[in-house]
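assembly run, all chains below
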Amino acid sequence: MKATVFVTVKENVLDPQGKAVQGALHSMGFDEVGEVRIGKYMELNLDTNDALVAEERVRTMCEKLLANTVIEDYRFELKGE
Amino acid sequence: MNVAVLVFPGSNCDIDCYKAVEHTIRQPVEYVWHQATDLSKFDLILVPGGFSYGDYLRCGAIARFSPVMEEVRKAAEAGKYVLGICNGFQILLESGLLPGAMRRNNSLKFKCAPTTLEVANNDTAFTRDYAAGEKIQIPIAHGEGNYYCDDETLARLEANRQIVFRYSGENPNGSVADIAGITNERGNVLGMMPHPERAVDTLLGSSDGKRMFTSVLTAWRGTAHGAATAGR
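ok done. output:
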């Protein structure tokens, strides 16, 4: 299976990179842009096709390493091959 | 007092830490590779600055799983002194030895400059040679030193006097409550973004970092273990 993992800064935590990109977009005339959040995108190839097992494993990976849950949220999608 | 300077792939302030110990307190000091599995002989463990594992994923996120960090956890539990500087602070946060997390500087710029700190708590093993509220000059050098914790954690840090250093005047990174350095509840683990090891001689622009090292030595000598082996 393949897991795609998205890690973003929590809603209530200031995201300095997002703020800078928002400022740049505004100065370019894209005034319709509200808040911008920047995050990380990761692709993991897993050697299992058991969705339940994969979900449990990827969640543990996120909690332990891929996200710092003090300041970041994560979500992931699983796709069979 | 035996001092360990941990070395991770990408550490680059390890030599400065080693030299600072030699220069300020002249105690036995050794480099310890991150795969070491025994820190039992050390009384003070320095987790130096740098870019452990290239800062990939997040600063300190990968270093936190190095075998030596399990030993650092045991040493901290045993009441030994642990001082994490810059990337070392980030590693201690990632490993949960200290509360909170680091974000990019609010300016998004890497800041490398002398900063003025206020000694917010001089009643710790690391700061007893400073006066309460004293202003000291210690340089910073980081791109991710914007300390964050939630309100509840901040209230706890304040109530327990765990905030040891605050930026005085301009806050260079946007950290919560101008925090530059904190301890754990017990006070034997300190993490800070500024580099005391780069301020141990007026030739370096400031010697205000020196007293952090002398403080720990004095604290260690005051413990039962230190008294039993004093005079080495």
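Chain B has a mean pLDDT of 95.

The domain at 3-230 of chain B is CATH 3.40.50.880 (Rossmann fold).

not gonna interpret more than that til we talk
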